[in-house]
Amino acid sequence: MDISPGSSQLAESPQALAQRIGLTFHNIGLLSRALTHRSYFNEHREAIEDNERLEFLGDAVLDFMVGAWLYHRFPEMAEGQLTRLRAVLVGNEQLAEFANGINLGAAMLLGHGEAENGGRERLPLLGSTFEALIGAIYLDQDISQVWKFMDPMLETKVRIIIANQVEHHPKSILQEWSQSKGYGTPIYRVVGFSGPDHDKYFEVDVLVGDIVYGLGKGHSKQAATKDAAKHALEKLGIR
């Protein structure tokens, strides 16, 4: 197949992309197809196929692979949180972020109009092309290569997501963990306070089962409760 960019003079070659991101393709035509947007296919009839079928396959591969990755990476995490994490990680916005991380836009084969209208920066297009890339890796090799390719990206992003969740929603995360283990809803108790009425300082502990897992402090009961949940998550190694 002729993979010359034609009207998309800025496109990086599939071979150069593969070398740059550390991939070895047995069939470079699969990678070329993964990079071929419908707009390019419509303008270059010598192109064999656009990337929409590979996008379909890559979507399914990512759903399974990311689910399996999370299952093994977080053996103590509740099903609800696993589901939400997977939804974030395979969403188009996040896939576009992964695509930008490897500068995938530089290698996309776009029609003249799509390229002129900023197609290389469009999030939906970047996300769908990333899915097609995953589909191509899977067909060219197997799921283990997809896992190897995705692992560092997932590890970095999941740490950020969990840190943000622990920071902003520690009580919800602790409750999910507690209920998934059969302990029921965590119990928060005010165990002390000090200061004048207009500026009280509260101390709150949290029990999971019959064990105190965290002690929090704050200028309101709500703040102290949130702090107690964060300390409980740290004790449990969920951070």
Task: Briefly say what this structure is.
This protein is mainly alpha-helical. It has eleven helices and three strands; from the N terminus they run ααααααααααβββα. The longest helix has 26 residues, at 143-168.
Description:
The longest helix has 26 residues. With 239 residues, the chain is mostly helical. α4 runs antiparallel to α5 and α4 crosses α8. It has 2 domains: 155 residues, Orthogonal Bundle (Ribonuclease iii, N-terminal Endonuclease Domain, Chain A); 67 residues, Double Stranded RNA Binding Domain (2-Layer Sandwich), CATH 3.30.160. It has a 3-stranded antiparallel beta sheet. The N terminus is likely disordered. The protein is built from 11 helices and 3 strands.
Give the fraction of residues assigned to helices: 55-70%
User: Can you list the strand order of the major beta sheet?
Assistant: 1-2-3
The secondary structure category is: mainly alpha
Q: What name does CATH use for the topology of the largest domain?
A: Ribonuclease iii, N-terminal Endonuclease Domain, Chain A
Q: Give the count of structural domains.
A: 2
Q: Report the order of strands and helices.
A: HHHHHHHHHHEEEH
Oligomer: single chain
Which geometry do the CA atoms define? elongated
Total beta strand runs:
3
Backbone CA Rg:
24 Å
| Low-confidence segments | 1-8
Report the CATH superfamily of the largest domain.
Ribonuclease III domain
What is the end-to-end distance? 49 Å
The number of helical elements comes to 11
Write the layout of secondary structure elements.
Blueprint (H helix, E strand, L loop, with lengths): L13 H7 L7 H7 L3 H6 L8 H22 L5 H11 L2 H10 L10 H5 L6 H18 L2 H26 L1 H11 L6 E8 L6 E8 L2 E8 L2 H16 L3
Antiparallel strand pairs: 1-2, 2-3
Helix pairs in contact: 2-8, 4-5, 4-8, 4-9, 6-8, 10-11
